[in-house]
Model the fold of this input.
Amino acid sequence: MAKLVLENLSKIYDHKVVAVKNVNLVIEDREFLVLVGPSGCGKSTILRMIAGIEEITEGNIFIGETKVNDVQPKDRDIAMVFQNYALYPHMTVYENMAFALKMKKTPKEEIQKRVLASANILGIEDLLKRKPKQLSGGQRQRVALGRAIVRKPQVFLMDEPLSNLDAKLRVQMRTEICRLYRKLNTTVVYVTHDQTEAMTMGSQIVVLKDGEIQQADTPQNIYKYPANTFVASFIGIPPMNLIEALISEKGNKILLSFAQGSFIVPSAKAEQLKAQGYIGKKVVFGIRAEDIVLFESPIEMEPVIGEVEVIENLGAELNIHFTTASGEMITKVHPGVKIEPEQKIKLFFDLNNIHLFDKQTGKRIV
Amino acid sequence: MKHKKPFWKTVLHFLVLCAVTFIVIFPLVITLFTSLKPPNEVITATPTLLPHDFTLENYIKLFKVRNFPQYMLNSLVVASFTAVLSLLISSLGACAIVWMKFPGKRVVINTVLAAYMFPQILLIIPLFIMCYCLNLIDTKFSLVLAYLSFSLPFSVWMLKTFFESIPKELMEAALMDGCSYWQALTKIILPISLSSITTVLIFSFVLGWSEYLFAVNLITTDANRTIAVGLQTLLGYYRTDFALLTAASITMSLPVFCLFVMVQKYFIKGLTVGAVKG
Done:
C-alpha cells in the first residue's frame, strides 16, 4: 500500500491547451480520494498521468518514495478500472481476470486461486466462462473491478466506473465499491463528475475546474465551507443559491441588503467583513436550499419576496423554484407544505449558515 | 413507417440484378465450359455453350505442358509471402500510427497516403534498377518486394482505420496489465481485428497471385515464372489453344476462389469497417 504525491503536476497539449495546471496533492495511504468536477476539468487527465498512460508535461508523481514519471504503466503496481470497462472481448471472464497475472508469469495454481477469490468477493463465480458480450452492464463492471482486484496493486484508479450504468444500478454499485474499499483497505483514486458519488464515497474530495484544484477537503467541510462560488454551486443538490448583495454600515451594525430584503450580519461575521474592508462593497451571498425558511422567521430580517415558479415533487421533499428581485432561488420544504405556483412567499434565511464570497474573485470571505 | 414496395418495382429490381449477374457470370461460365470441351469443339461454325463431350484432357495436358505446376508453386510462394509480410509490417505500422507518439508521425501518415495514390506503373523502372543493383533480378524475392511496395500503403491505411475504431482503453488496459506494444498487438488487438486482417490478407494475396507487369519484367527464366506470366506463354503466335488457355484460367482462379469462400464472412465485414464511427 502506498502514499501518492502529485507535485506541481501539469499537462499541456500542443504547447497551447492547458488541461492540468500546477496540481499539488498528497493522497495518504489507504485513503479514498475522489476527483470531481465538470467535463473537461482535467480529472481524468490527472488519473491517466498517475497510471502512466498520459505523459507528464511538468511536475512529478511519487508512489511511496519512488518517482514514477518515467516508469512504464505495467511497472507502477497500479490497477485501473475504465469508464467503458475495457474488457477484452475475445476472452472469457476468467481469462480477462487472469490476463495480468499471466503476463507476470504467475503460476497457474496461484492465478486460479486469486481469480476464484476475487470472483467470490464480487459474486461473479457463475460468469467465469462467459464472454463480455454475454454480460449485463453491472456484470461487466464487476468483472472490470475483479480484473483490478486480482492484481493486488498498491493503488486502485477508477475513471468514472459507474457513469455507463442506469440510476438504480449506480446506487447499488456505489455501495458495493464502498464495501470493497473497506474490505481491501487500500488506496483508491476515484474520478467522477457526479457530486453525489463524490460526497458519499470519498474520505477526501478534490474539486477541479479548468485544470486547477478549487478545494481539497473532507466531504463535510466542502459542503459546509465551500472555498469559492464554483465549489458552492457544484457541490450540493440543489445547488447553493448565489445572489448579489451589498454590505453597508447602519449605526454600529453591518447590514447585508439585496434588491429586496436585508438583514443584520451576525457579529462574528460582521467583524471579519469590516476587517477585510468590504463595507460599501458588493459581494455574492450564498445560502443552501435547506437553510431558507418560508413564511416566517424567528430572527429579525426584512424578507426576500419570492414568486413560486416551479414545484418539483421528489416524494420525501419538495424543491421550490422562486423568482425574486435578486434572481432565481431554490428551497427545499416538507411535502406537507401547501404551496401553489405563482404564489408570493416571504423567504427568510438561517443566519448561522450564510456564505459570503468576493464578487470579483468568487473566493470565500466568511 | 416502412411502405410495402409495389410489385412492379420488385420485378424491375430483380430483372436488373439478373442482368448484372449475367454480365458478370457469363464470361466465367463460358470459360468453364470451354475448358471442359475437346479442342475440336472449341472453334466451330456454330458456337455452343455446353460441350458435346465433356473431357478433362485439357487439365491433364495443362499439368504436362511446360512448367505450369512450377508456375503455380512460384505464385503460391510469392503471394503467400506478400500476404504474410504485408500483414506483419502493416499491423506494426498501423499500431504505431494509432497508439504511439513519435516525431514525424504526421509526415509518415501523409507519406503512406501519398504512396497509396501513386500509380504502380511508374515504379517499374526504378524498381527494376534497384533489383538489378541488388542482384535480385529473376528472384521471387524481387517480386515480393515489388508487391509489398504497393500492398503496404493500402494495408496500413486499412488497418489504421480499423484500429482507430477500437476503443483506446483496450490498448491502455493491455499496457497496464503488463503488455508491451508488441504483446498488446498480438494478444489483444489482432484477435479482435479478424475482418481487417482478412481484407489485408486477401488483397495482398490476390495482388501477388495475379500481378503480371512486374512479374514479366523482373523474372527472366522459366523456373521462376509466376502463373500470370505462365498463362501468357500459352498464347501462340499463329494459333492459340483456347481449350488449354481456359483450363489454365480456371486453374489459376481456383485457389483465390477457395480463399474467398473460406473467408468471405470476414472480408465483407472488413469492406465496410470504419465507414461509420462509433
Q: What stands out?
A: The two ends of chain B are 26 Å apart (CA to CA). DSSP finds 13 helices and no strands in chain B. The CA atoms of residues 215 and 222 of chain B lie 11 Å apart. The interface with chain A takes residues 101, 167, 169-170, 172-179, 183, 188, 191-192 of chain B (CB under 8 Å).
